[in-house]
Design brief:
2 copies of one chain form a homodimer.
Chain A: H1 27-34, H2 36-40, H3 45-53, H4 64-88, H5 95-137, H6 145-162, H7 168-191, H8 213-223, H9 232-235, H10 244-272, H11 283-292, H12 296-329, H13 347-363, H14 368-371, H15 377-397, H16 402-459, E1 474-479, H17 485-497, E2 501-507, H18 510-523, E3 528-533, H19 540-550, E4 556-565, H20 577-589, E5 593-600
Parallel strand pairs in A: 1-2, 1-4, 2-3, 4-5
């Protein structure tokens, strides 16, 4: 983890007081740290358009360019809109934060749910596209796409659990290589009179749909997957050097220009070279082979694309766990997800993201194209919420020139809302229904968790001053089964905590009990012994019964259980199981304080 | 669970004081309760011989009968030997108990390891053979043998975890049906002049081995899988009615007679009807069809065989968990396996057995024939140990007529030892190597666990009287993060346990700390508050640091963590994770007493 922020508007590394400005992002550094997700989407966006259009025959593919130009138009509106978001929210603030502040609880739940869906999809889509890109270069990998994705996922998860720092500088090199590769493909392709090489295997085209408005809308929706991630810069403003807003705006404009140029350039090439889907290779790989041939440049380009896609998947690991911790702080997810242990890593969130992405990849067998119908819906919901929040902001604040600004953001909001509806309508049967079901289900889950925590807060009278606590008499019960240094250790602690201590032992028959009592009296530890009989050899139940009987009255009962702590973790399974069982049953069935005291072994 | 004892020599239901003799086993009841494992092995024993011999061509199958007669001879020696075991060890005592008493630690470890292997194999072989038997009757099940085995395993495991009582009487009916079916097959088959029906599909015979001594020894070894389980009666003597030893001996002789008669009868039929292995059906099913045709009697017979095999698998669930608890009592397995909670079930042992058997079934894809080479080695090691122990017993005790008795047991020991060696040598490459590796590995594991517990016992000075425990001053630390009824509840308990209580709160910045302090002073609970600052929002580390600093000096530190207990278990994940994390880290890094106090919610 390290640099990078994400859709939640939280810098991924908390900036500490007194940290120098030198550690903050320049405009170009911001591009590397915050835009890999957006830039890398050229690896699957144009392909997604081609795969939709080809259903109406290869002649329909000529529509790739006009559709891409329409998408670039939407990109322009979004980029300008986000420059305004940056000016208004210089502290960052993704759709969830903006929604919560300006648009109320339900909208913020919608934002949160769509963000969760989208983070998971970003991981899955980026890994699937990365695997496809690598398999384009090395065809022998083609049958193992799912295995490659899961391996990559395990690696990224491990890196994020360890919390290895990555810097914007380290991300710069892959980004530059990636940009050189893509623009190189475009430039050489435009100059060459005919393709340098053809890769992959020809595939028969089955014409299954007529070329009409529905298909064009579907292709547009699929291509909009190329716009995911452009909101990340606006969320990450606090990580920029001063003047922050200006630098972030500059980065946003750079991203828009680069992404738009790449999309249009690749579409022109697709048209010029009459690219059709071929088996075993991506559309981008076909274009690369067409420009560079199949020599070292082909391999280098594909590897650069794979690397940037993997890093794009990695950005979600910076984003979702932070979002989950914000949600848990708002009582909308288990507080578990807000925990950070020794390293500043939300490990439950990281593991949750990895499991969800793995499930998704297995479900679609790592085929990018099956994920595209699910993707971008969530992003466009987020776009709409951000823009709407800004319209509301202009309307209530009314700064100078608020009306044209509100009009711009309003246009953006309407366009992205229409885009979201087009996605759902045109791709419902192909997978969008999953998102249509999941988003409300998540909203309901968040709301139910929130109402649980509210009810608990009421019952605990959080925020009201309770009665003053009073001291009561206490009795400490120490279960014993032998006389040893462990027993002495436990009784020492018990005597320190109460004047009234009783040792309790359980025996299968009276003779054994009498033997033990004799030993006890010989030791004479100054603590009385209660012997319980248990003909069925259960140890737990006689003790639980004893605690329940002792609980009558107002005194505070504590049960003190000594625990042997071996030095090596591998010996743990050999110890303390009985105490653990006893503690679990006592916790479930009595109101006693359960105390455990460690006894550290030195030999093992 | 209920009746039945097993190779460990422990009755499966502990007999309570004052229990009437009526609840004990008659000779015939003992057959149902203790012999299903042995009797059911006719379902796979003769088939195992046929499958080995057929490798030398169908003419080699005529050797089935002489090999079966040799096995029956060994059966006779074993039965007579075990009648002596019953007389000498009327308290039961499987190979592990006998080995420990008479032959020392190493031999008892060998016995334990081979018993563990065998219990697991009994479950796997019985389930695999049961599935094959059911699939013989219903060919549509044939592709799903593994699924059938695992389903059966889950059912048996569930029954054993619930601890549903089974009685000898309930086992009587399936046993009688089974005996009627098998003897019916034999009787009708001997009377008919030609087979009533042919089932299954013909399979080509690939001659891959020459008929020689090695193949005959292999077939003998495979057929000895039919002798597994005959030691169970000797282990279960205490469950018989008085006169126990006499009744048990009578049962042992009945078992020997029935098993011998079934084995020889089935072999005669195999020869008479020129049975060869056929696809989709077991050898026993072929004989059944040959005698009864393929009408209702065929289905009824196969179902009876399946049922008895499932019950045979179930007997291991009575045996292995008890053996594991004996081992854990001898410090040779984690004490975990000695635990019994509410029900008298060793649930860890039951689960361990289920997992091991499932792993084995998956590894061999539920094919009985692949398990046979592993099976019976363990049993014959156990036979050898029991006999050798008895020889030693005769030699040291020297009762009247000890010499012929010792000679008999000595013959048994030598024969079974030779058989065990023949198994290992003839089937090493086909799977016996697994047992050859597993048995010493288990012995090593037991020995290492034993030496761990011994070292711990030394360090804890078990058996010596330690110093008398002295009371010390105490300090109870209560981590707080809000003021609520939960806080009051925790402070009440803390004040009851010590005069010196301190509340500790952690804040990300000083302002928040000052706010909380003001609230605290307004409440004025009579407990001082320490505010710790944690700019990195870690809650655990500041508290651990505070506890470590407080620990200087000789006073006893306790940390009291309140836990919210929701009424419904589904809400558990929403609570207490922070406390759990704190407790875990404190337990690992400080010597403080860790106390938890439940606060039971009434609303959720």
């Amino acid at each position: 983890m390290g640099w990078g922020t994400s859709k939640t508007g939280r810098p991924r590394v908390p900036l500490r007081h007194g940290e120098g400005d030198r550690d903050h992002l320049t405009s170009f550094g911001g591009l590397a740290a915050l835009s890999l997700d957006a830039l890398s989407s050229v690896a699957y966006g144009p392909e997604a358009i081609v795969l939709v259009l080809v259903a109406a025959g290869s002649s329909a593919l000529r529509l790739t360019l006009p559709i891409t130009i329409a998408i670039t138009g939407l990109l322009t509106v979004l980029v300008v809109s986000y420059c305004q978001v940056i000016a208004v929210h210089p502290d960052g603030g993704g759709a969830y934060a903006v929604g919560k502040k300006d648009l109320g609880a339900t909208v913020s739940l919608l934002a949160a749910a769509s963000l969760v869906v989208d983070y998971v999809l970003t991981v899955a889509v980026s890994l699937a596209a990365g695997a496809a890109s690598l398999a384009s270069a090395f065809p022998s990998l083609a049958p193992h796409l799912l295995a490659m994705c899961l391996t990559g996922l395990v690696l990224i998860t491990a890196v994020n659990l360890w919390g290895i720092a990555e810097s914007a500088r380290a991300l710069m090199l892959p980004m530059v290589l990636f940009l050189i590769a893509i623009f190189g493909v475009i430039a050489v392709g435009l100059v060459r009179s005919h393709p340098a090489a053809l890769v992959g295997t020809a595939q028969p085209i089955h014409i299954s749909e007529a070329l009409g408005v529905v298909l064009i809308l579907k292709a547009f929706a699929a291509g909009c997957s190329a716009l995911t991630g452009i909101e990340a810069i606006a969320n990450g403003v606090p990580t920029f050097r001063e003047p922050r807003a200006r630098r972030a705006q500059r980065t946003e404009l750079m991203l828009g220009a680069l992404l738009g140029a790449m999309l249009v350039g690749l579409s022109v090439l697709i048209r010029r070279e009459h690219v059709e889907p071929r088996g075993g290779v991506t559309v981008l790989a076909q274009l690369t082979a067409g420009s560079f041939g199949t020599g070292w440049a082909y391999y280098a380009s594909n590897i650069a694309v794979t690397l940037v896609l993997a890093l794009a998947a990695n950005t979600s690991f910076g984003g979702l766990p932070v979002l989950m911790s914000l949600l848990s702080k708002d009582n909308r997810l288990p507080h578990l997800f807000g925990l950070r242990s020794e390293r500043p890593v939300h490990r439950y969130g990281v593991v949750a993201l990895a499991l969800l992405a793995a499930g998704l990849l297995v479900a679609v067998d790592a085929v990018t194209d099956r994920l595209i119908p699910l993707y971008a819906i969530g992003v466009f919901i987020g776009f709409t919420i951000s823009q709407t929040g800004l319209v509301r902001h202009w309307y209530t604040q009314r700064p100078p020139r608020w009306l044209p600004r509100a009009a711009l953001n309003g246009t953006g909001a309407v366009l992205t809302a229409i885009a979201a509806l087009v996605f759902v309508a045109s791709k419902f049967a192909e997978g969008a229904w999953v998102v249509v079901l999941t988003v409300p289900a998540l909203m309901l889950l968040f709301a139910r968790i929130e109402s649980y925590y509210r009810a608990v807060g009421l019952e605990l009278e959080l925020g009201r001053l309770p009665e003053r606590p009073l001291a009561a008499r206490s009795l400490v019960i120490v279960p014993v089964n032998s006389i040893s240094r462990l027993t002495e250790h436990a009784l020492h602690a018990a005597l320190s905590l109460s004047d009234d201590v009783v040792a309790v032992s359980v025996h299968p028959d009276p003779e054994q009990g009498a033997d033990f009592r004799a030993q006890w009296e010989q030791w004479n530890p100054g603590v009385r012994l209660e012997s319980l009989e248990s003909p069925h050899r259960s140890l737990v139940h006689p003790i639980v019964g004893y605690v329940e009987r002792a609980q009558q009255g107002d005194r505070q009962i504590a049960v003190l259980i000594p625990e042997v702590q071996p030095r090596h973790w591998r010996y743990r399974i050999l110890q303390n199981q009985r105490g653990l069982l006893l503690a679990t049953v006592l916790r479930a069935s009595t109101d006693a304080v359960i105390c455990t005291i460690p006894y550290r072994l030195t030999s093992r």
